[in-house]
Amino acid sequence: MRARLTHLDEALAEVERIPGPSGELALDAVATLASVYGEALARVAGYAAGAPDVTAALTADELVGHLLVLHDVHPEPVDRRVARAIERLRPAVRDRGGEIELVGIERGVAEISLTLGGCGSAAGEVLAAVREAVLAVAPELSDVRRQAAVAGDAHQAAFVPLDAVLTSPLTPPLARSARP
């Protein structure tokens, strides 16, 4: 399904580059079709609202859930969708010796608590994956930010100056500073 969605995005980008009335007509047809499908999807979501199992199945389906979000008719509030995305990511974060939690959502920004074992070099990669997953289920958000580390957090790597590693604690300070 991802391959088809990628192909669709590429095809729409090509249509947007068509100059003149033909391009405008093609874009209008696509927009009208999307509007009709969005209305139909809203009706399906409305009918399913009385059947919690059906609603759960619709929202759990990756493609249907994506379309519900795209057409702004997803029955779940944004915080629940984001919490579900975080829950799906948790096993992978734990495999890296870390933990992830949703702190909250305020002014269109999801704030997460993310700790990782070992060095902090993987944090950027993990945060990028978290951001991508969260914004996929909640495109109405503008960003996903990592909560600032709390002093004394056991998962934060301590900074140890290189001189402290390369010299003996018995080496006089002047001798250390004179090293090349």
UniProtKB/TrEMBL annotation:
SUPFAM superfamilies: Fe-S cluster assembly (FSCA) domain-like (SSF117916)
Domain (NIF system FeS cluster assembly NifU C-terminal) ranges: 82-144
Record GO terms (molecular function): iron ion binding; iron-sulfur cluster binding
Family annotation (Pfam families): NifU
Organism superkingdom: Bacteria
Record field: transmembrane: none
GO terms of biological process kind: iron-sulfur cluster assembly
Role noted for this protein: May be involved in the formation or repair of [Fe-S] clusters present in iron-sulfur proteins.
Protein name in UniProt: NIF system FeS cluster assembly NifU C-terminal domain-containing protein
Species the sequence originates in: Frankia alni (strain DSM 45986 / CECT 9034 / ACN14a)
